[in-house]
Amino acid sequence: MNTNEIEIDEQVFSMPRIGDKAPEFKAVTTQGEINFPSDYKGKWTILFSHPADFTPVCTSEFMMFAHLESKFKKANCNLIGLSIDGIYSHIAWLRTIKDKIKFKGMKNIEVKFPLIEDISMQVAKKYGMIQPGESKTQAVRAVFFIDPNGIVRAIIYYPLSLGRNFDEIFRALIAMQTSDKFNVATPADWNPGDDVIISPAGSCGVAEERMAGTDDLECEDWFFCTKKLDKDLVLKEVLKS
Ligand code: BEZ
User: Fold this and answer.
1) CB of 2 closer than 6 A to ligand 1?
2) Domain 183-238 belongs to what topology?
3) 201 pLDDT band (50/70/90 cuts)?
4) Active site includes 204?
């Protein structure tokens, strides 16, 4: 077994970690077969799991993801959903959502991104989406952020009963893109337009320079320096593709 694999009841589950290559898979989805990550090269992907079709929290989340899909697309990010259900259940559920369900002012919501059928749990097991303490048969609410090079950049897990926060999912995506583009870090609760953090001084000389003051940096102390980063510039750079 690899270091990120665990064995439970004689089954092997792997838990991809931040910085790992995203595990490869081929899957049947509501939008046809996909090969991941090769079909998604050059784009960010949010791969997320939900416990089951025809359940209320999952339904609310799917409506939100579908409603926000164009916003994610503008940030060069595709969505892929997964649950341990079959393709006909997926199709029936998505049709029901479109035809019947209203939530937070949304109605007639059509889910156009792929929803993976994973009855065999082959993908869920590779991505640590089955967490047996929570459920042995349903995936937890996992969110994997995978970058254009197929590297896992962030992971969020929620339990079955807790619907996800979509502002945070979008904020995390834009913050990581901003870090990549401008070589900065983002502080607590950062949103575009807020000051960003520059990497801590790596030598006594740089620490001294920073404390002596430079035009564009604001230093609380030698290790804590921020700078302005224009909101329009961030949005132009990360939303341009
Ligand atoms: C739901 O999506 O509503 C749900 C699914 C599994 C357990 C609890 C809630």
Assistant:
1) no
2) Antioxidant, Horf6; Chain A, domain 2 (3.30.1020)
3) confident
4) no
Q: Is the CB of 58 under 6 A from ligand 1?
A: yes
- Give one DSSP letter per residue of 112-141, joined into a string: -S-EEE-TT-HHHHHTT---TTT-SSS--E
Q: Is 141 annotated as a binding residue?
A: yes
Question: 5-164: which CATH number, 1.10.3720.10, 2.40.100.10, 3.40.440.10, 3.40.30.10?
Answer: 3.40.30.10
Domain span(s) for CATH 3.30.1020.10 in the chain: 183-238
The tokens of 205 are what? 């000389």
Give mean pLDDT, residues 66-71: 98
Q: Mean pLDDT across the stretch 28-52?
A: 98
pLDDT band at 3 (very low <50, low <70, confident <90, very high): low
Q: Return the closest-CA partner of residue 11 out of 117, 118, 131.
A: 131
